[in-house]
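Lab meeting prep.
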Amino acid sequence: MPESDIHADGDGVRPDPAASAALVGAFTLWFAQQRWEWSPPVYRLHGYTPGEVEPTTELVLAHKHPDDRDHVAELIARTLRDGEPFSSRHRIIDTAGAEHAVMVVADRLRDDAGALVGTSGYYIDLTDDLDAAEKHLMDERMPEIVEARAVIEQAKGVLMRMYGIGAEQAFRVLAWRSQETNIKLRDIAARVVADLALMPAPPANAVTAFDHLLLTNHTRIDPDAGEQASSR
């Protein structure tokens, strides 16, 4: 069966080889051949020009930080054995020796018959600096951001809580999904918020803990902080 007939679970994260978001890039791991595919940003994240090397499991692991390598190797082995998506937060070392904190988010990849054939998703570089390409993307999307700020901020909050990332990284994920799917940023954000209804309900103890935090948060607010900020 041609790979073009393969699709990911859920919203779908089948990588577009032309994806070019600066700090977010797509990958696929095909189970049968244990073959990896990287989009150009993932090559660059590891310090390679696109197509310079053939990504393999050995190469993927060689770039992991020594303190994270065994953990990631175990995750990949579990993915190949049990079909679980390869998702992780760890560090990689590029070819120049620079360290990058990354998050890998993935989904199961199935063929038209429903058989599990791989895992597909994307890398997020968790650095703080926006490069010129990202700034251009933000400028390009700014009218949409102004027009639909509320729903975009809600979606950013969802990603920040679910993935434990910052506001800039959350925006990068939304912008990259918008670019890759050719769907407006505000529509991607609105779908993220709407799809919360499809999520399992949080366990009762989590709701209880949040209730307590909400009802006592006034005790953790510095009343002088707002005055100091407003006087600046």
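Slide two material, second protein:
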Amino acid sequence: MMSTIRVPTTTLTAQSGGTTAVGGTSVAVAAVLSGAFLAALVTAVITIWLARRKTREEERNRLRSAFAEAFATYQAYKEFPYAIRRRRVDAPGEERVRLSEALRSVQADLVYHVVWTVIESEQVGKAFAELVKQVRATAGTAMHEAWNAPASNTDSAMNIPPSLVDLTELTKHETIYIDAVRAHLRRLAPWWAR
């Protein structure tokens, strides 16, 4: 007597739309590969990319403004030798107080910007700290001399020659700071904008 062994077989059936299903998996594959799903996926990727790009650009703009404010504070300090020489002659006591208070405020702002730039970028911070160190030495000496000189009391005395106040030494430190800011902002730019 012979025995028969039966082997189970899988039946393939054709569904409407011309797809073949093995145990219902084609429904899931069809959903994943559907045009609507792909469109949603592409839209999500583009939306995320645009949001990230906008965030980076906003960050660069924030830094650009903050680094410019730091430089503006430096410039305000740099102008004090001229302001002191041009102080009012008729109210020396009031001018001392006015200029001293203004200088105190700018010095406090300088300290803030030195700390802020170091926290934001080590390279930019070092360059700005060196710029501030140099302006304090150069313009500080010029301020000392300006306080010891008589106040300007004529229109022609308002023109202060470089022989009295020479701050050209600061130009190279200004360039170093600006270059450090540019390099930092360039690193934050997208690769195609570099």
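Talking points for slide two:
The chain has a mean pLDDT of 84.
The first helix runs from residue 25 to 32.
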